[in-house]
Every structure is written in C-alpha cells, then in structure tokens.
Specification:
Radius of gyration: 16 Å
Structural class: mainly alpha
Largest sheet: none
Shape: flat
Oligomer: single chain
C-alpha cells in the first residue's frame, strides 16, 4: 500500500496535478486572494493569542 506522501507525489506528477498546481499559482498571484489570506492568518493568530 502506498503511503499518503507517495500518493500525493504521484498526483502532483499527473497531468491533472500539474493543472491544479498552475491554477493554485495563478490564484496566489491575485491581490484580492492575498488580502483574504492575510486576513485569515491575522484572525488565526489573534484567536490563538487569546488562548
């Protein structure tokens, strides 16, 4: 049985995996998505600080 890491590597090397990686890279370059991610990270950090 293949380990989860091995299965992920195989997926990332497949055509569908390459397509999804490129899609993620494109989304990561979008300023609006970057701002959303920053807000989410700030919320998580703030939430963790109160514990």
């Amino acid at each position: 049985m293949a380990s989860i890491v091995q299965r992920i590597r195989e997926y990332l090397q497949s055509p569908k995996g390459h397509e999804n990686v490129e899609k993620a890279k494109t989304m990561a370059r979008d300023p609006e998505n970057r701002q959303r991610l920053r807000r989410l990270m700030d919320q998580m950090r703030g939430h963790r600080a109160h514990r």
